[in-house]
UniProtKB/TrEMBL annotation:
Residues 12-53, 61-72 have a biased composition (Low complexity). It holds the Pfam family Haem_oxygenas_2. Transmembrane segments: none annotated. This is Iron-containing redox enzyme family protein. It comes from the Bacteria. InterPro entries: Haem_Oase-like_multi-hlx. Residues 1-83 are annotated as: Disordered. SMART domains: Haem_oxygenase_2 (SM01236).
Length: 420
């Protein structure tokens, strides 16, 4: 149901129409660039029974900095995104429930229980499953406009999430071969070898040398799902650690969160990049446009972060992330500049060239090495988490480059519903 308070040309309430990005020189033809900043709106699944019938306040127009209330803090007032359009029977029913006050509901009323055969397909590419799981997890981050905060710990919701998680874990296990557990003291070397053996299309080189601005914006739209909450999923690991591994994770996260300077938070640097590219930098602006594999990347981090039993995988995942960051980010930075981006627009990528060269050492040696020294039996978990991160990134790169090589967008078309 469309919210009549919306302008017809907005992506979602609060997402303004395209405006030239201040960080781009020589690019004013935003309208031909996949329509990204002013993407057509997706249908609003909310019902009138929702706890908040007030329209979501508008955010700053795409490509512009918001008017903050605190001059020391560039981040805008937190505006939770609206629920995206449903992508199948699970999200249709789930979203209908979430806009009502929290309540218990019978699991058998949900199609994921009624039609278990639907999970026979590749779960990592299942739009309905990945979006449902992403929305369940997002209740632990910024939540959604019009969704009661008490849903976060609602038993029925957690039961649904567990079913989705089980399928997701099975899908990961099928897609990711489990590396052999390293011997104590060999964790760093094993991680280095795992990363060195990773295969897949080199998306970063394409973005550096060949991608046009529309393609680069698509890439940024995908990445915004994680980068706008950068570091948050791995922060769940901090209270679960002790000693050297805890100190190492905190050291990394301090950088990710700007070392006490709000404007240096990596999520804020990414918002600057988005604005420089003329994109909507509001949280979740492109949630409705990214495909299942992009959601699966974030879902894996949340899965590992929110379950103490996956602590080893969480650390391995972060290590692989840091160990594969510096060189690709140098490519992204060159790509931004080739396309006319200025220093501010490329700063997020430049920052990671420097920071992650350090982070990868801290992550592999101190964080993962320290953890395995304390928990030798969990060395395999660390390697598995790293392998999951690498595999998902390979599948993502295959999706994006495959789409572009066929002349297609790597994003979902607005309004398209995928699923039975
Ligand atoms: Fe970062
Ligand atoms: Fe980092």
């Amino acid at each position: 149901m469309n919210d009549p308070s919306r302008d017809a040309d907005t992506l979602a309430p609060g997402h303004g129409p395209a405006a030239p990005g201040p960080g781009l020189s020589g690019f004013s033809e935003l309208s031909e660039l996949s329509g990204l900043p002013g993407l057509p709106g997706t249908s609003d699944p909310r019902t009138a029974a929702g706890p908040s019938k007030a329209p979501r306040p508008p955010a700053a127009p795409a490509g512009t900095a918001p008017a903050g209330t605190d001059p020391a803090d560039p981040s805008p007032p937190v505006l939770a995104p609206e629920l995206p359009a449903a992508r199948g029977p699970i999200t249709t029913l789930l979203f209908e429930r979430l806009v009502r006050p929290p309540h218990r509901f019978g699991l058998f009323s949900l199609p994921l229980m009624s039609f278990p055969a639907r999970f026979a397909g590749p779960v990592l590419a299942d739009e309905d499953v990945q979006l449902a799981l992403f929305v369940c997890y997002e209740l632990h981050y910024q939540g959604f406009w019009g969704v009661d905060e008490r849903w976060e710990w609602n038993p029925s919701l957690l039961e649904v999430r567990e079913i989705l998680e089980t399928r997701f874990e099975e899908g990961l296990a099928r897609a990711v071969s489990c590396p052999p557990a390293p011997r104590p003291g060999d964790t760093r070397r094993a991680l280095v070898e795992l990363v060195a053996a990773a295969e897949g299309p080199d998306l970063s080189v394409f973005l550096q040398r060949q991608a046009d601005l529309a393609q680069f914006r698509e890439f940024v739209a995908h990445r915004s799902i994680y980068h706008l909450k950068e570091a948050d999923p791995h922060t769940w690991g901090i209270p679960r650690l002790r000693g050297r591994s805890k100190a190492a994770l905190v050291e990394i996260q301090m950088d990710e969160y700007g070392g006490g300077r709000p404007g240096r938070m990596h999520s804020e640097l990414f918002r600057t990049t988005m604005r420089g590219l003329g994109m909507d930098d509001s949280y979740g602006a492109y949630l409705g446009r990214v495909p299942a594999i992009t959601l699966a990347i974030s879902n894996a981090m949340s899965l590992f972060g929110l379950h103490r039993r996956h602590l080893g995988a969480l650390l391995g995942h972060l290590a692989a992330f840091e160990m594969t960051s510096s060189i690709p980010n140098a490519c992204y930075s060159r790509g931004v500049r080739r396309l006319g981006g200025d220093e501010e627009t490329s700063r997020f990528y430049d920052e990671h060239v420097q920071a992650d060269a350090v982070h990868e050492q801290v992550a592999a040696h101190d964080m993962c090495g320290g953890f395995v020294a304390q928990h030798p039996s969990r060395a395999g978990d660390v390697l598995y988490g790293a392998a999951c991160g690498l595999a998902l990134d390979r599948l993502f790169a295959e999706h994006v480059t495959g789409s572009w090589s066929r002349g297609l967008s790597s994003l979902r078309e607005a309004g398209t519903t995928i699923g039975p």
